[in-house]
Every structure is written in structure tokens, then in C-alpha cells.
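A further point concerns the way the authors explain their paired sequence and structure data. An entry of this sort, consisting of the sequence and the corresponding C-alpha cells, reads as follows:
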Amino acid sequence: MIYVAVVASYVLLLVGISVYKSRTVKTDEDFMVAGRGVPVYMLVATLICTWIGSGSLFGTAGLTFRSGISELWFSMGAWIGILIVYMIAARVRKIAQYTLTDLLEKRYSQLAKVLGTITIIIAYMVIAGYQFKGGGRFISILSDGSVSPETGMIIAAFVIVGFTVLAGMVSIVSIDIFNGSIMLLAMIVTLPFAIMSHGGVDAVISTIEATQPSHLSIMGGHDFVWVIGIALPTFLLLMSESSMYQKFSSADSASNARKAVMGMFIGVIVIEVLMMLIALVGFAIYADDPRFFMADGSINRAMAEEIILRIGFEQMPVIVGSLLLAAGSAIIISTGNTFLMVTSTNVTRDIFQAFFYKNATSAQIVWIQRACIIGIGLLAYLMMSQFETILEMALISYTMVGASLAPPLLAAFFWKRVTRIAGVMSIASGMLTVITITVLNSVFRDSETSILGISFPMDTDYIAIPAVIVSVSTLVIVSLVTPKPLDSDWQEFMGGDPEPAIPPKP
């Protein structure tokens, strides 16, 4: 009961802040990018909260439970991506568009923007949806099973949608300073208590060595292909994470957008490493618990994803457990808010405003976007029945966005030779590859088959590899066989002057 009271109080605090901030929303720019006046410390917090969501709380935890410290390859993909984003954050803020798809339109074409919008809508609905799914599991654990995960998912969806509708980006960046702080504090405090609950560091290591020694290896018994497959989705998503670009546009200056990325880099590494270590200790604690294993001795992947929350609810002193569970609610709510916000911004600007309500007033756009948030939330909820685990959903959605949008986006900032048609075809080929694999996985889920030498269902740990190969190959080949782009196409993105014209020979 104490846990319920603490979490409920924290959520009500966030509701109060959102209601208060909703009074400051006057224009669509306030709603979408917080009036472009977010200071560095708030931007750092909201960027961290964007990344640390149910994919981390459940997916990272579950992957650690079955792979050990080799999970770090999954997290490391994002860390590398953050460093690359650091190089372009100031340029994004200077261009000052609302969304990532605005950037695609500016560099490539309106068709690129439409394809990018479709990709983001599909993938981000999955990401928003697994925040609902994670929220359902969280509420079920918090209620000690008296609320089913299915009922909990409805409650979580209602809360997350309600938060987002209230004040948009103003609400998100306002509550994320609290969410980011409680995430970091909870992970720092929980780790030593979790270790002590199993008898200390030596006891934890001894249990893992006796049960699954590969969990203490950086490769975890896997090969290099697995490392590439597991690192690519987080790397690619980070590079093409639309909510980050939208938040860069919320910064009060270009230089502060860049500073915020470095703050995000440090914060994400600290929190993800702590999460991995807590889940690893959890493997030692629950090594003999039948709830976490199937009848054949294999790991119950869905149950393994709950390991961090189970530690908080079952192993920690009340104060520490309350702090960790409050952090869990912060993680789920903040990420759900962000992905609903970004998806609804794309739908509002790239579909309704572009094709149906070209002369809509600022106030009308805000209400259109609020309606979109509710509609997208409903669709995201309905999609959840198609997937078994949160990690599976994360890998598919990350790859959908990353393989489709990261190659043309990186090319826009780093390769002058990329052409407009190549960018469009790269987006389309990456998106169709992921959709095709996902459909085939669903069709052949219960009856393994081979198509063109590829086995289905394909392990989602590897889904990014073929998608990236197709997308990048399309981008490069089409760019090289089509006419060289004009200097004006790339100048603003490359941050330099166009190449001087070479005078003709006399």
C-alpha cells in the first residue's frame, strides 16, 4: 500500500505541473517546441528521459537477464549515436524546423517528408504502445497482481495520453527535470542495496559463475554478427530520433542544444550501466526462481523484462523500493509523452496542415494536434496484441525508424553527393524491408520456413542488418548513378560555403 501511495503522489505531482503549464500554451509553437526557449539543464533532462523509457526499463533489463554484461553492446549503439548527434545538434537548431521530416523535405523533397512521416507514425505508435504495455506490467506489479496487466495497460494509456494532451512539449520538458532526477537517484541507491540483499559482490559473482558464467563475458557467448545486430537498432534510432530533433528546436540557442547533447551522453551512460548492473544482480537473486524460467529451462523472456521492478517491489527496503518504483513510473510516463507528442506533431503538420487545413489558425492547430494525440494513443493501444515482449517491439520499431531515416539524414549532414531521389528511395527501401520481415515473421511464427535462403521467423536480434544493407546500398548506388546535386541543396546542412565553380578551360 505504501508503494501505491508513493507512486500515486508522484504522478499527481506531475499532473499538477502539467495543468499549471497548460495555461502558458498560447500558440502551436508553444505546444510543439515549447516556444523555443528551453534552457540547457531542462533540455538535458528531457533528452535523457526521451531515451530512457520502457525499452530500457524492460528491454535492457530482459536482455541483461538472458545475456549478462554483453547487453552493453545494445546500449553502446546509442552512446555512439549521441556523439555523432553532438556534431550536428547546433546545425539542426539553426535550421530551426519543427520535426525531423521538415529536415528531410528541406534536403530532399516533399515525398521524402511524407515517407518519413509514415515511417515515424508506424514505428512511434509501436514505441508509444509498449510504454502502455510496460505501464500495464508496472501497475500489475505495484498492485501485487490485484490489477491485471491488461487492465493496467488501459490505465497507463489513459494517464500518458492525458499528460500529453494537457500542455504538449511545455508539459514534457517541465516534468522531465523531475523525472530525470528521480531516475538517476533511484538507480544509484538501488544497486548497492540489491547487491547487499544477495550477500555482497562476491556472492553475486559466485552465483553467476555457477549458474551462467558467460553472463560475465563481454561477448556473452555470442559472435560478432550478434553484436552488430543488437547495436545497430539503438545506434540508428538515436541518429534518426525525431523527438530529439524536435527538442533541439525547443532549445533557447544553437550552442545550448549542443551542450545539452553532451549532458545527455553522460546521463544516459550512467543510468543504462546502472540498470544493466541491477538486472545482472537480479539474475543472481532470482537464479533459482521458477517464475523466470520455462519448463525446458530456458529463460521466460517476458518475466525477465520485469526484473528491475521485481527487485524494487520484492527485495528492497520500503524507502528504496518506493523510490525505484516512482522512477519506474517516471520512465514510462516521460517516454510515452514524448513519442505521442512527436507522432502527433508529424501527423498534424505533415498531413492535416499540409493537405487539409492550410489556413488553420494557431489555436486550431493546437486542438487538431490534441485530437491526433488521442487518436494515435488509441491506435497504439490496439497494436499491442501483435507482439510478445517489449524488447521485440523495441528492436522492430528502432529498426523501422533507423534503417529508413538514419542513412539519408546522416548523408544530408555529411555527404554532399547524395541526391534527392536517392534519399527518397533509401527511406522507402528501408521501411519496406522492415515491414516485409515483420509480416513474414508473423506469418511463419509457428512454422519455420526458408525464403531465398533466409529463415523465418527471423530473430529480431538480427533484423537491423538486412534493413540497413538495403537502405544504405540504395542510397549510395542511386546517388552515384544520378546527376550531382546543386550546391544550394547541401550548403545549409553542411555548415559551409558551396564549392567554387571551376572555370572552363580556355
Remarks:
- Confidence is low (pLDDT under 50) at residues 497-506.
- The chain has one domain: 2-391.
- Strands lie at 449-451, 454-456.
- The CA atoms of residues 309 and 325 lie 7 Å apart.
